[in-house]
Write a structure and sequence with these properties.
The protein is α+β, with helices and mostly antiparallel strands. The chain is built from three helices and two strands, in the order H-E-E-H-H. Helices cover 37% and strands 18% of the residues.
Amino acid sequence: MDPNGRLPIPAALRKSTGIEPGDLFFLDVEDGVLRFTATENPFDILAAHALKEYRAGRTISLRDFATENGFTLDDE
């Protein structure tokens, strides 16, 4: 660990596993063993799903949703 609390990952391991700068990890300690697993930001996953649904034509506008469900978005 460096003085700033960062844990360097050797270049060969980064290359062989495809680890890129900015990747996120979940850290766990069990029986004195440190394990880390690559993870994704849940907001990135959600955004990718939303774009996929939009491009497939399976979304509607907020105004249309409000109309279909009987409420208005305008201040009254």
